[in-house]
Task: inverse folding
């Protein structure tokens, strides 16, 4: 009998087995502490006519960015109907056979699977994704027969971009800077939408869907399904994030931590696979242009100045050499 499901997924098992010769599965895992619910913030508070209510909402966002590096938002302005449409189109996209996804030139040739720089199972991600630059999302030539996917991704990207810029502005203003401080540096060529698929994993529930990492942007907006699997580091221990169907997840990236001089935290997080159920998510990344200079918003600075291009290049070199990202530690003074 032909296993049609295995034909649609990338050769993750083959790659995992080849890496397992260099490492023992599970040796990299930390003990899970508990399931948690991230801080939930109702963004309607930002529109309140009550000044104190607006201030409370801003304070809650800033506190979550400082203490957790992650939070959830309600009343974020993106309809559940649009998000459900995005999910349906995303599932249909990933159900396509692997060879077609890998070779069709879809979505600006942005298809990726696993992480080919991995040197062991501890550095391997059991997942596949499309990374779509914002300036390509409206390009009809990128979609082929997936015209309905184009409409959904375009609407979601625009909505998530608006939300990301709103929250970045709130966090900047909280530190005494203009709300539009990032408007001139973040553009459509570097901001992107990533569609993720985590296939069922027959190996072990201790396999990474996405290896532990921090995001290399200012801010990320995440729409995930209800399967679960997202975990983050809190007080030196891993905690599992309880899915909440009413919210979107927001997390701080490396650039915001550097710019805020560590007022806001870019927290290590990961995704764990599921042996029985596949998982989908969509994430929007607010990034600056490659020549944008990232400096701390106050002195004395904890970090030397660097451009986004220099940061990305350093990450590429570190991953190529060591198999993993080193990140902001490279730029400490």
Result:
């Amino acid at each position: 009998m032909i296993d049609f499901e295995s034909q649609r997924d990338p050769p993750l098992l083959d790659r995992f087995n080849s890496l397992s010769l260099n490492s023992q599965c599970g040796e990299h895992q930390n003990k899970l502490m508990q399931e948690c619910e991230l801080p939930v913030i109702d963004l309607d508070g930002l529109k309140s006519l009550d000044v104190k209510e607006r201030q409370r909402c801003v304070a809650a966002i800033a506190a979550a960015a400082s203490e957790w590096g992650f939070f959830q938002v309600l009343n974020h302005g993106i309809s559940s109907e649009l998000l459900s449409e995005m999910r349906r189109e995303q599932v249909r996209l990933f159900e396509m056979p692997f060879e077609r996804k890998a070779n069709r030139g879809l979505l600006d040739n942005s298809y990726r699977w696993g992480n080919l720089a991995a040197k062991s199972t501890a550095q391997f991600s059991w997942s596949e994704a499309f990374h779509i630059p914002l300036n390509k999302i409206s390009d009809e030539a990128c979609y082929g027969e997936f015209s309905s996917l184009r409409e959904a991704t375009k609407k979601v990207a625009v909505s998530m971009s608006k939300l990301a810029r709103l929250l970045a502005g709130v966090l900047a203003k909280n530190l005494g800077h203009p709300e539009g401080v990032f408007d001139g540096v973040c553009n459509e060529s570097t901001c992107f939408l990533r569609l993720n698929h985590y296939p069922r994993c027959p190996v072990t529930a201790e396999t990474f869907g996405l290896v532990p990492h921090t995001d290399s942007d200012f801010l990320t907006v995440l729409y995930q399904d209800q399967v679960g699997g997202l975990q983050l580091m809190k007080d030196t221990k891993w905690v599992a994030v309880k899915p909440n169907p009413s919210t979107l997840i927001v997390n701080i990236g490396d650039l915001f931590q550097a710019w805020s001089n560590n007022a806001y935290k870019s927290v290590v997080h990961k995704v764990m696979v599921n042996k029985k159920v596949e998982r989908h998510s969509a994430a929007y990344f607010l990034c600056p242009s490659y020549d944008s200079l990232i400096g701390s918003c106050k002195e004395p600075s904890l970090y030397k100045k660097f451009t986004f291009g220099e940061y990305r290049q350093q990450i590429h070199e570190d991953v190529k050499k060591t198999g993993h990202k080193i990140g902001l530690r490279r730029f400490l003074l």
The longest strand covers residues 279-286.
